[in-house]
Specification:
With 311 residues, this protein is of the alpha/beta class. The protein is built from 12 helices and 12 strands. It has helices at residues 14-27, 35-38, 45-55, 71-87, 121-131, 159-174, 185-189, 199-211, 233-243, 245-261, 272-283, 304-308; strands at residues 4-8, 31-33, 58-63, 90-95, 112-113, 183-184, 190-191, 194-195, 215-217, 228-231, 287-293, 296-302. A 5-stranded parallel β-sheet has the order 2-1-3-4-5, sandwiched between helices. The protein has a 3-stranded antiparallel β-sheet with strand order 6-10-9. The protein has a two-stranded antiparallel ribbon with strand order 7-8. The longest helix has 17 residues, at 71-87.
Length: 311
């Protein structure tokens, strides 16, 4: 249904602006109440005017040097303010004279200014948008994907830090490599010409993870923001404990069983998880590794504590 709009104006402004303005509004699907169109011989002027005001969903007050001094304009404005409070109608001031004094009651209302009554298409478009409650504001898009991930908390780290660590560790597990290597942030967090995490936030998280010992940044004198790094044993363990504790514990137990039962256990040394488990056992002084290369290992000493872990 077409929105109903009442135009409050002075007779002096009818020919120079209001008639053309009213026509343009109606051409854009708006039902305009204008005395010229609505009043018939024998009608009681005041009754018809207030009938139009009662039905209006928006009231346009055409402000000019002539209209601001008209008593009935003030009456129509007062009635419109009552309707705004009780019905929520819109009051849209349209100023057509540069030096026109705006009534105090409209100071806090957004105005439409028409500086050229012969050419005001841009102003007209904005007034029509206000009547239809349209906005040129872009629709709210989807949040960045990195903000939607379900994460497990890791002590001392914020959301972006956890995402960077998690992504890095999962990349390591997916691309098993027995040799230590440096990861490149561009390879992990840059797709289709865009950073999946804003670059500034990514650099901040890398610095935080480095300070907390989860990663080790490769720094140089010429690079202000290091982009290459490796995951530390502590960082990898933090990820395992948070995200795959059952898989990790099962594999750790399986490797401990192989070690206890054979000092040259058959362990796949191309698996990143297996290498981490062996290194963690060594760091805990549970085993001594004599050989750790060429895809095979030799263990010269197995601690009693390690044997007890199978009991």
């Amino acid at each position: 249904m077409a929105p109903k709009v009442f135009i409050s104006h002075a007779t002096e402004d009818k020919e120079r602006f209001v008639l053309d303005f009213s026509t343009k509004l109606q051409e854009n699907g708006i039902d305009v109440w204008l005395d010229k169109d609505k009043l018939l011989p024998g009608d009681i002027l005041i009754d018809k005017i207030f009938e139009g005001l009662k039905e209006a969903q928006s009231v346009i007050i055409v402000l000019s040097n002539d209209s601001i001094n008209k008593p009935w304009i003030k009456e129509e404005l007062n009635f419109s303010f009552l309707n705004r409070l009780s019905k929520g109608i819109k009051i849209i001031p349209v100023i057509i004279d540069k030096e026109c004094k705006v009534p105090d009651c409209l100071i806090s209302t957004f105005w439409g200014k028409v500086e050229n009554t012969n050419n005001y298409q841009e102003n007209l478009d904005r007034i029509i948008d206000a009547i239809f409650d349209r906005t040129n504001k872009p629709k709210i898009g989807s949040p960045p994907s990195y903000t939607q991930l379900e994460l497990t908390e890791i002590s001392g780290l914020e959301r972006t830090d956890i995402i960077v660590l998690k992504t890095s560790c999962e990349y390591e597990l997916k691309n098993d490599n027995p040799h230590e290597r440096h990861l490149k942030s561009r390879e992990l967090f840059h797709n289709d010409g865009k950073w999946t995490i804003p670059r500034e936030k990514l650099n901040e998280s890398l610095e935080i993870l480095d300070r907390h010992g989860h990663i080790k940044l490769l720094r140089s004198l010429t690079t202000q923001n290091p982009s290459e790094y490796r995951i530390t044993m502590y960082g990898f363990q933090s990820y395992l404990d948070a995200y795959i504790p059952e898989e990790y514990n099962a594999q750790r137990k399986a490797i401990i069983s192989l070690i206890v039962n054979n000092n040259t256990p058959s362990i796949d040394m191309k698996k990143r998880l297996n290498i981490h488990i062996l290194r963690s056992l060594k760091s805990e002084n549970l085993i001594i590794l004599d050989k750790f290369s060429g895809g095979s290992i030799t263990i010269s000493n197995v601690s009693p504590e390690l044997r007890r872990m199978l009991d």
